Amino acid sequence: MSSAQFRRAGAFASSLAVISAVSVAGAPAAHASLPGSGSVLTISNNATSIDFIGDPARQTLRNPVPEAMRDVSWSPDGSRAVYLSPDQRIRSIRFDGTGKVQDVVLTPIPGRQRAGTSWLGDGSGVVWAEKSDATSGWTIRMGASTWGVGEEQISPYGFGKHYRNPDGGPDGRVVFQREDDDGTGQPTGQPAVMLYEPGAQGGRVTLVDDNGGNPAFSPDGRRVAFVREGQIIVSDLTGGNEVAVTSNPVAHDSPTWSPDGSRIAFRQGPTVAIAPADGSAAASPSVLAIVDGVPAYQPRRKDRVGRLAGDSRFSTAVSVSRSRWASVADPADSRERARAVVLSRSDTFADALGGSALAAAKRAPLLLTPPTSLEWGTGAEIQRVLAPGGTVYLLGSPGALSTAVEDQIRGLGYTVRRLAGTDRFATAVAIAKEMDADPGMVFVATGMNFPDALAAGAAAGSYIFAEIPTAVIVLTNDAVMPGATRDYLDSLSAGRYIIGIGRAAAAAAEAYDDDALDLVGDDRYDTAAAVARVYFHGEQHIGVATGSDWPDALAGGALMGALNGPLVLTPGTASALGPAARDALDETSGAVHTALVFGSASVVSDSQLTEAGTWIGGPLGSTRVYNPTDVGAPSRAGATVGAGAMARTADEAAAVRALETLRAGNR
């Protein structure tokens, strides 16, 4: 999306929800103690390459930029390493040097310092230490791990303290080091180990140990390794059950846990050494041949790529529904229970374009049927996910979905709510009003074609995760704002913001409101990728659909909105992914653990599905699954929404400025 164009939208209130002797100033931080398989250890030395120990496939990763890499830390699947560049940017690089060197966090204000970059345990975010000027204290910051436009301070506010050397753990938790200030802006005195736990009112920070520094979370999140008087110590998160991992008379620093939690690597004088975490070799750690570097284990975990498909557009939509929504007749089904069903006609997109966002907002699957009768598989899926008495939304007038369809649904015991207008534009307005009578953001896309509205649908639907006003979709007649859409926009509060998605809608939006934000790519694929970059940050699912037809992307967009993940488009019948989709998969691979491909192999080719799995995967690649039924289940999604929700910003002007900065910096 090298020539995607963006325009200022005006300020919109930002909301960030969510998520002794060690320690001489400047000591390298502990890194990347995340769970996984394997025992590959990497060593970095503020140079343009990273050395690998125990990896038969590679000995060295050279930065293609090239630039020096400091404070290297690995994502949970080992696909990307985050590092601090010489100009204080936080960037990530793919494990094999392919793809893009990706800016993760905004370029800092001149004069600021950063140090100690580390991933959160679910890959959704990164943490680092930051100092705003020479006399200020160090603070701990957290931001999303992809296309970051939002960040927040998680260390306590106030003066007289420094907080450094963070290490991310599971469930958004972070351990870091606290020190006093010497009166001139420099840390001094005995360090302490602190624990941050996300929650209401900005989270909670508690003391782990009052004599320790440079902490590293264990992979299971139950213990912490830290340095006390030059030795590596392990304790639980209350500071109890201490174990001395080292006791030999050499200074130790920068601990990092092996992915299985059995060993800890660390700096030992001018070398790197390893010792069992249970203290059984405290007097005689194993010294590695490589010297003068900072160790970081590379966790390895298989991601997965799933195809959601059937033998028709009806059964594909059913497969998408079955991937997430619980069976109402099975009380043991722990998946999310649908609160409604959204039903669209299957033969044309005209009345359907707002359906993805509606379905996500209503926590509902989106299903398809012919205009004149209820398709049998669709009827069976409605009965599987929705108890009698539940609401089925029909998109469009009886000319779109007939009274016969309505009667069949009522005959199954459901309440029918028809959302319709005199044309596709008025129907989109009716859908938007059902979502929110006075939304904070309005995505505007052409109603004369489908790609831009479908990419925007996942974004609008995903705003259910943010503590900010709802986003909805309305339609233009290409570059002309229809009367129904104009009347709707006129009725909204003065604080609403309009975002034109795609060239035609951007022209209509700009003509209506000089402060509208335009998101325009070179083509439909580039525009969808632009939507992903601006509106999704650190999410763990990504969807891929063909840009050549609409039914699979419509149902898929509804699911992606419910998963808080982007939908990107690709030329589905080609042998390779489109460049825009490929780049999106590459850049998000450190956070994404599941890619979902919508439609059969005749819609999105098998070679593209395989390529998607390769790009999101690390050294172990991705497992390929067909019609999974646990998409977004708690066991895979984690206990929290993640740093992506924290980084969700309602300041769309800031998002665009951020994206321009990222694009300019990616060399």
Brief characterization of the structure:
The protein contains 15 helices and 38 strands. With 667 residues, it is of the alpha/beta class.
Describe this structure in words.
Residues 1-32 form the signal peptide. The protein is of the alpha/beta class. The chain has a domain at 28-297: 6 Propeller (Neuraminidase), CATH 2.120.10. Helices cover 22% and strands 31% of the residues. It has 15 helices and 38 strands. It has a five-stranded mixed sheet with strand order 1-34-33-31-32, with helices on both faces. A five-stranded parallel sheet has the order 36-35-37-26-38, with helices on both faces. It is elongated.
What distinguishing features does this structure have?
single chain, 667 residues, alpha/beta, Neuraminidase, five-stranded parallel β-sheet, 15 helices, 38 strands, 22% helix, disordered C terminus, WD40, Cell_wall-bd_2, WD40-like Beta Propeller Repeat, signal, Bact_Sporulation_Assoc
Uncertain segments: 1-26, 635-667
Q: If you average the pLDDT, what whole number results?
A: 88
- Quickly give the structural class: alpha/beta
Number of helices: 15
Strands of the widest sheet, in order across it, are 1-34-33-31-32
Strand percentage: 25-35%
CATH class of one domain: Mainly Beta
The percent range for helix content is 10-25%
CATH architecture of one domain: 6 Propeller
Rounded to the nearest angstrom, the distance between the terminal CA atoms is 14 Å
CATH superfamily caption of one domain: TolB, C-terminal domain
Shape: elongated
Instruction: List how many beta strands DSSP finds.
Output: 38
Q: Taking Cα atoms only, what radius of gyration do you get, to the nearest Å?
A: 26 Å
Biggest β-sheet description: 5 strands, mixed
CATH fold label of one domain: Neuraminidase
Protein name: WD40-like Beta Propeller Repeat
InterPro entries: 6-blade_b-propeller_TolB-like, Bact_Sporulation_Assoc, Cell_wall-bd_2, WD40
Keywords: Signal
Organism: Micromonospora inositola
